[in-house]
């Protein structure tokens, strides 16, 4: 009986140990890094500035439409690109740079850091960085991991970059009504807001047509926020502390 009970316990112990390791490897470091804001940026310092950032692209249809809208309204943005998609759409990356946008790293594939060994994580970051630099002649300065996930070894490989998370996440990867999405975006506006949006809906858990709704919504929201006194500026401008006079002027 004792021997049989021991045989039953062995798989349980192995499974429990594996689950504990997985939690310690991914979710715990993610919570720790996010909560303590260790070496990461969630909000800028500019008193009246906001920044648009886009993940998961480039997409041959939606990213081009988005660039047209940004050009129309003279709004700079930062694109956190997937390396293998960037390699398939080199002209879009070149256009981003030519029109004054920044490009950041989002891994070579859209894969969570929780699912990557240390050397795989290093390769994902480095390959994406190399692709961006080869296509644009610009070395990326910013990094945002897919889903905002970190693992136990992330700190070893993210030191060369400014790690950008967000202060506004509107779940635009789902097919929302424009009114609902517009309300979320307008409601999240504040001094130094970093918006997280998505120009590709072909990732796990996303709706493929969702970027179209996001783009249509931006066409309405950008003019409204500008009328309220907000300035759409690039991340490098947003991260530099400015005088509070502009912010006070907007409030008055």
UniProtKB/TrEMBL annotation:
Matches recorded under Pfam families: Polysacc_deac_1 (PF01522)
NodB homology domain residues: 48-233
InterPro entries according to UniProt: Glyco_hydro/deAcase_b/a-brl, NODB_dom, Polysacc_deacetylase_ArnD
Regions that span the bilayer: none
PROSITE patterns named in the record: NODB
Single GO term (MF): hydrolase activity, acting on carbon-nitrogen (but not peptide) bonds
GO biological process per UniProt: carbohydrate metabolic process
Protein name: Polysaccharide deacetylase family protein
Source organism: Peribacillus cavernae
